[in-house]
Amino acid sequence: MKEKIxxxxxTLSWIEEDVDESNVGYDEESLEALLPHGPLSNLQQLSLNxxxxxxxxxxxxxxxxxxxxxxxxxxxxxxxxxLDQFHSLKTLSLYKMxxxxxISERENNGEFSDSSFLPSLEQLTIEECRNLKGWWxxxxxxxxxxxxxxxxxxxxxxxxHIWECPKLISLLQEAASESKDSNMKVKIxxxxxKLSWIKEDVDESDVGYDEELLVALLPHGPPSNLQELCLIxxxxxxxxxxxxxxxxxxxxxxxxxxxxxxxxxLDQFHSLKTLSLYKMxxxxxISERENNGEFSDSSFLPSLEQLTIGYCRNLKGWWxxxxxxxxxxxxxxxxxxxxxxxxQIRICPKLISLPLFPYLEKLELHKCSLKPLExxxxxxxxxxxxxxxxxxxxxxxxxxSSSLAASSFIPxxxxxxxxxxxxxxxxxxxxxxxxxxLQHLDIExxxxxxxxxxxxxxxxxxxxxxxxxxxLTNDGDEMEWHGLQSxxxxxxxxxxxxxxxxxxxxxxxxxxxxxxxxxxxxxAIPEWICNLNSLQxxxxxxxxxxxxxCEREAGEDWSxxxxxxxxxxxRWRTYSYDLELNQTF
Length: 585
Fold this sequence. Notes:
Leucine-rich repeat, LRR (right-handed beta-alpha superhelix), 20-stranded parallel beta sheet, globular, 11 helices, alpha/beta
């Protein structure tokens, strides 16, 4: 192996087993023998998995062309070679190195310049190194010594991921929280920052600990190039105001930050495209500013395309003193997300008001209020013409209604996919007339009449799942089914009280696939199924009565379905669908 100067990528993986302490040097000797040596080595990528040595052999330092180094589950390793000698290294990953306390055994004495310290490193990932304390072995912790020996910076680091390294994080906090010259604060090249805290009980007297740490770790600007920020299990009550300076932020994700009660003004992030808030139990309002009509639709989060809010059980609204009455709602109209295309709200039972989302293309609502959706559906038609255009239209006596229609937009008329799960409210049918582009509708564990409308002319896929109370037998719905001329696939699943198929289905001339799963009360196939000339596939699973009637040649309903090309009738196959499943999420 020592003569293989053309080797570029080397991955070595050891079998995980108990090693006799008396033979601890075995892996070190084998690695020394396997590594290509010498300045002529072209090795660019080195990955060691479950290496059992206490130290990495010094021969690795001769790999001057190394670009990527990955050490994975090297639990006994306590000593690494001087990494600052790898001037070409772009990616460094340290994962599950339980005995490693310091990355470098050299003391930081100010000898490093920002341009010479790992000058090519772009991506640094450190995960589950639970005893790692710092980069340097004798890193000074006091504020005075820290000022005298300032930390160098990674000159080109663009991605930093620190995950469950509790002792490393505490040292960074002690060293950096008091210093305006922290190396993290001048990392203008950092583009992606992900920080994860270990879940543990925090003393209330130390509640500001995580806040100080985050201030120390954030790159400050302008100019800051940070585009993605992800915080997991952050324990602070508020996010530091310095986040507002991240003017180029494109993605912000806050996950399991249960103590956080205050967010910075998000409307200042004009480049933000993706916002995710998940498991923030103490958060009641996203913004502390009152909505007083000062926002215009063009200036309010103008780039936001995707918004996910999940398991925020005490979240009430976007604004701290959001008005809820109809009169005040009209007097102080809500601003709209001008480019939001995906909205997901899950398990937020108190959330009753959001900015409007008229241009949405995908919507998921799971165990929350329908009020935000109703507010958007009740919007007036949006005038997309400029004042200049309106003047010219009014001045032209020949202007037609089509010209006016071209300058207007119906709220949610672009919506293509909608999923509604575990809802106690029923969506009024009259509000469905806007959904002229809806192609996929998924209704799960809901009650009340099925919200169909003859205006759903683009609907292609309808799925009704897991409800004991949804009403499918209302004869008045027959005309609503008649309007679904584009529907190609229809699925009824886990409907224990469904005794007959809705009569309106016979008008679905484009229906190609009909699926009926676990509907034990369904008694028979209707005579009108032969009217479905486009039907190609019929699946009946776990419907014991229906399956028996549809047995090939012998069943009472066989003659009604024999002409269908693809049949799957299986009364023995069982599914374990729990109607309460989604309520536990």
